[in-house]
Amino acid sequence: MKKIKKPLTYLMGLSILGLAVTLMQKTNLGMNSWDALNRNFYYGIPIDYRYLTPIVALVLITFAYIIEKRKFDIKFFFPLVISFYIGLVIDLLLLVIPDVTQMSIVYNLIYVFLAIIFIAIGLNMIIICNYPLPALDQFCLAISKRYKITFGKGKLIGEVIALVGTLIVGLIFKHQEFYFYIGPTTIIGLVFIGFFVDLLAKPVRIFLGENSVN
After folding, report:
1. Residue 173: CB partners within 8 Å, gap ≥ 6?
2. DSSP secondary-structure letter at 183?
3. Residue of 182, 144, 142, 146 whose CA lies nearest to 162
4. Above 60 in pLDDT, residue 1?
5. What's the predicted TM-score (pTM) here?
6. Do 53 and 101 contact (CB within 8 A), yes or no?
7. How far apart are CA 161 and CA 166, in angstroms?
8. Cα–Cα dist 56/59, whole Å
9. What is the count of structural domains for the chain?
C-alpha cells in the first residue's frame, strides 16, 4: 500500500492543480500573472498555444536548472508530460464545473480564492512526494532553493517576475488598451498565492503523514 501511496498522492496533487485552473477559467476576473504573460505573447506574435505552452515550459525548466546549477538529465522533460496531464484534467473539468461569469462578484471571488487554496494544497502534495513539478512551479522551487527561502516566497517572486514580464511584453506589443490582459485574479494571486502555499504546507504534511509518503 505504501508503494502506491506516493504516486497516487502525486496524481491527486496534479489533478487538484487542474481543478484550480478550471475554477479560474470559470470566472470573469481574469487570469494569473503567467497566463496574462502568455496571452500577451499569443496576441502579440501571434503564436498558437500548442506551440507557446511547451516553449514557455522549456524556457522555465532551463532557467530552473541553471538557477539550481543542476546537470541536464531525463527529468528535464518531465514537466512537459505533467503539463499535458494537467491539460487533460482541465479539459474534462471544464465540462462539469459550473460557470459563474454571469453571477455576482461574490461567487467569482469564491472561485478565485478556492482556486488559490487548491493550488497551495496541490503543490504541497507534489513537493512531499519529491516528484517533478509543473515547469512554472519547478522554476519557483529553484528560486526558493537557490536563495534558501520558503517555497511560498519563491512562488511570490515568480509571480512578480511574470507580472513585470507581462507589462514589458504588453508595452512592446502595445496592449495598453486591454490593460495587458491583467485582471483582479492577477493581483489576488500575486498577493495571496505564496502566503497560502506556506500556510498550508504543514497541514498538508500532517494530513498525508509525511514519513509514510516520502
Report:
1. 40, 43, 44
2. -
3. 182
4. no
5. 0.85
6. no
7. 9
8. 5
9. 1
The grid coordinates listed for 28 are 470573469
CA gap 137, 212 in Å, rounded: 24
DSSP string, 25-71: HTSSS---HHHHHHHHHHHHTT--HHHHHHHHHHHHHHHHHHHHTPP
> Cα–Cα distance between 130 and 191 in angstroms, integer?
26
Residue partners of 33: CB distance under 8 A and separation at least 6: 159, 160, 162, 163, 166, 186, 189, 190
What is the residue-wise DSSP string for 91-139? HHHTTTSPP-TTS-HHHHHHHHHHHHHHHHHHHHHHHHHTPPPPHHHHH
d(CA 63, CA 207): 33
- What is the chain's Cα-based Rg? 17
CB 108 within 8 Å of CB 57: no
Nearest to 87 by CA among 54, 111, 112: 54
pLDDT in tens, 181-210: 899 999 999 999 999 999 999 999 999 887
- As a whole number of angstroms, the distance between CA 77 and CA 91 comes to 22
